[in-house]
Design brief:
The complex is a heterodimer. By secondary structure, chain A is mainly α. Chain A has 11 helices and no strands. Classes of the chains: A mainly alpha, B alpha/beta. The interface between A and B is medium-sized, with 29 and 29 residues.
């Protein structure tokens, strides 16, 4: 067990290093910084347009809900999750990993943890900075900081579970990105609005159940996105997300250990 | 020979396509050449030996232990893949040290092993250059560096000379021979006959997923009974020599040329002919420049075996 954990750590460190130097990293860091840019534009507009008022907390909630939760984490998790396996196959570098004395599940887990940590960092940095920009005149308000922490927690959970899901998809399917796009912007973004128990078949349902305005039953300015949301209890939502993450990863490791991957010429 | 690597009745299918069929072989210390045309099954065999593929039928063992999903064995195996694939964002140094970290070496140990390996392949001075700027020869040598950096006892090199210029080829051949001299077990594949000949006399011939023959080149040549052996004699009076041998039962065919002064005998029993030749040469007083076996090389052996 100790040696397995050491292998996972070694691989996570390997891919943290490789991932940091990858070209696409810059693109996704910029994408993660978009909320900051939006916040700056909104605040600049307020400063330079007399008579304009901005409800910072409401705008922040909207950005978290519409951009970060419904778009950014899905895109990031999709591209990084599916690439855990696929980029090793496409780049034909899998050989360098599978011929080392590391268990095959450690390859999946190590790379997953490296990518998930990186994504959480990118998203958290963008969200935290945009929070500061939008709350610049009320940074002493402790309740606002709690909202930030809760939002960060939900986004981090979202990244963990979606990245795990797309890691699984990447180990199974060749056209994993196409499937992932259909899942993210088809299934997840539509079925979550279905009434009754159907919405519970989406991951997004459990993430939204954890957002402050939802679990308190409030009607924020993003209420249109909570249309017909029938939230699950927060504890149940967290447990469900944790179980899903573990299940997706466990299945991905199991498949990766047994499947033979061939490079295409 | 103590077998380090053993394949027993090994077969591998890719769906309905047969990659390898009923291959049994034993490989011991020293260099063994795996020879065959493209698509013969060399890479499939190497992937099975390194645990990247699971046998459909049969068994692969290294030091007596099954290879598939046996990660403990991988610490003693160095594999140089055929494909020109790298983490191109890294430098040569980062590539080797980061892969070494997967063996559990400390940072200091990884650095010292990487330094030794990069010196070995003469890439140390280029270690801080990004891999995408490396030439083909440098990339090939870097693959060898990552193969040997952890000091394995078994080296499996898939087409290590592929695409190299003559100078780089010579360097890599010298490196491989250094491994042999260090007592390591080395399996090298190639589809180019002279490359294998330059490396070793011990070969395994693969064709269409099957082993055609294995052993050293003369031994394999001896296996081909249906093809007569050729013995070429170049001297002062080839016709006199031919006249003296034409009545011998061991001689099946006599041809003159292609070089002036040369006669080529085909025989079903090379030992008998080699016994007769010196005596006749002395008796007839023929001056001899050279006696050679033109088909005692891999090309001829390979052509005979695949029936071309």
């Amino acid at each position: 067990m100790k040696s397995f954990a050491r292998s996972v750590r070694a691989l996570a460190s390997f891919f943290w290093f490789v991932g940091r130097k990858a070209r696409r990293t810059k693109v996704f860091v910029l994408l993660g910084a978009l909320p900051v840019l939006m916040s700056l534009v909104i605040q600049a507009n307020r400063l330079f347009t007399p008579g304009t008022s901005v409800d910072g907390p409401a705008v922040f909630s909207n950005i978290v809900m519409t951009f970060n939760l419904q778009f950014l984490i899905l895109v990031l998790a999709l591209f990084y999750g599916t690439s855990v396996c696929a980029e090793e196959l496409e780049g034909k570098t899998l050989t360098y990993l599978t011929t080392r004395p590391v268990p095959k599940p450690a390859i999946i887990l190590g790379k997953y943890f490296a990518y998930a940590a990186f994504l959480i960092l990118v998203v958290a940095a963008g969200v935290a900075l945009s929070f500061v920009v939008l709350h610049i005149d009320r940074l002493g308000d402790a309740a606002s900081w709690l909202v930030l922490l809760r939002s960060l927690g939900v986004l981090a959970l979202g990244l963990l579970v979606y990245t795990a899901f797309f890691t699984l998809v990447g180990t199974v399917l060749k056209k994993s990105v196409l499937f992932g796009l259909m899942f993210s912007f088809g299934w997840e973004n539509i079925v979550q609005y279905f009434p009754g128990a159907t919405q519970k078949f989406t991951i997004m349902h459990y993430l939204k159940s954890l957002l402050p305005a939802v679990s308190t039953g409030g009607e924020g300015s993003f209420a249109f996105l909570l249309f017909k949301l029938e939230p699950s209890p927060p504890e149940a939502a967290v447990v469900t997300l944790a179980v899903l993450t573990a299940a997706f990863l466990g299945l991905a490791c199991w498949i990766f250990s047994r499947k033979e991957y061939l490079f295409e010429d | 020979m103590t077998a380090v690597i053993r394949a027993e009745k090994l077969s591998k299918w890719y769906g309905n396509v047969l990659g390898l069929s009923d291959v049994s072989l034993e490989i011991g210390p020293g260099i063994t050449g795996l020879l065959g045309p493209n698509g013969a099954g060399k890479s499939t065999l190497m992937k099975l030996l390194t645990g990247q593929l699971k046998p459909s039928i049969g068994r692969v063992t290294i030091h007596g232990a099954d290879v598939w999903n046996n990660m403990a064995l991988f610490a003693d195996i160095g594999f140089c893949p055929e494909q020109d694939a790298f983490y191109d964002e890294l430098t040569g140094w980062e590539f080797v040290t980061r892969l070494l970290s997967l063996y559990g070496f400390s940072r200091a140990d990884a650095a010292s092993k990487a330094e030794r390996a990069l010196h070995f392949v003469e890439l140390f001075k280029d270690k801080d250059r990004p891999l995408r700027g490396y030439s083909r020869g440098m990339r090939q040598r870097l693959k060898i560096a990552q193969t040997v950096a952890h000091e394995p006892g078994i080296l499996i090199l898939d087409e290590p000379l592929n695409g190299l210029d003559p100078l780089s080829k010579r360097k890599v051949i010298r490196l491989i021979k250094d491994f042999r001299d260090a007592g390591k077990t080395v399996l090298v594949s190639s589809h180019v006959l002279p490359e294998i000949e330059a490396l070793t006399r011990s070969i395994v011939l693969l064709h269409q997923g099957k082993i055609l023959a294995q052993g050293d080149i003369p031994y394999i040549r001896d296996l081909i009974d249906k093809h007569p052996h050729k013995i070429s004699v170049k001297g002062s009076d080839p016709r006199a020599l031919a006249a003296s041998l034409v009545a011998q039962a061991a001689v099946q065919n006599i041809q003159f040329g292609p070089e002036p002064g040369t006669v080529v005998f085909e025989t079903g029993d090379r030992d008998v002919l080699f016994g007769l030749l010196p005596r006749l040469i002395v008796e007839r007083g023929i001056d001899i420049e050279e006696i050679t076996s033109p088909d005692d090389n891999l090309q001829a052996v390979f052509d005979y075996l695949v029936g071309t």
